[in-house]
Design a protein that fits this description.
Elements (H helix, E strand, L loop, with lengths): L1 H101 L1
Length: 103
């Protein structure tokens, strides 16, 4: 009976070692799979971040260009008004000088 008991103990040890190796392999496989998934998620996040950055950059550029054009338009309108006013003042000054000279 002790030989049979020793066989059962050795068989149990072999089963234990086999299950332990299998568990280690499953653990490594699970870790590798998790690492692959993590890398993919990081890449996806990086791509999404770059796309968002590009989108925001384009929106900011468009807004800046719109603001620039609005300011330029306002400046050009003021410039035209100042030119018109300058011409009017110049005309009045010429008329005044002509009046003073020719009386």
């Amino acid at each position: 009976m002790s030989i049979e008991l020793l066989r059962k103990i050795k068989e149990a040890e072999r089963n234990y070692q086999q299950k332990l190796k299998q568990a280690e392999q499953e653990k490594k496989s699970a870790i590798n799979e998790a690492e692959k998934k993590a890398i993919l998620k990081i890449r996806e996040a990086e791509i999404k971040a770059k796309e968002e950055t590009s989108k925001i950059t384009e929106e900011v550029k468009a807004k800046a260009e719109k603001n620039y054009n609005e300011l330029l338009n306002q400046f050009e309108k003021k410039q035209m008004k100042l030119k018109e006013k300058a011409k009017k003042v110049e005309k009045e000054a010429i008329e005044l000088i002509v009046k003073q000279i020719f009386g």
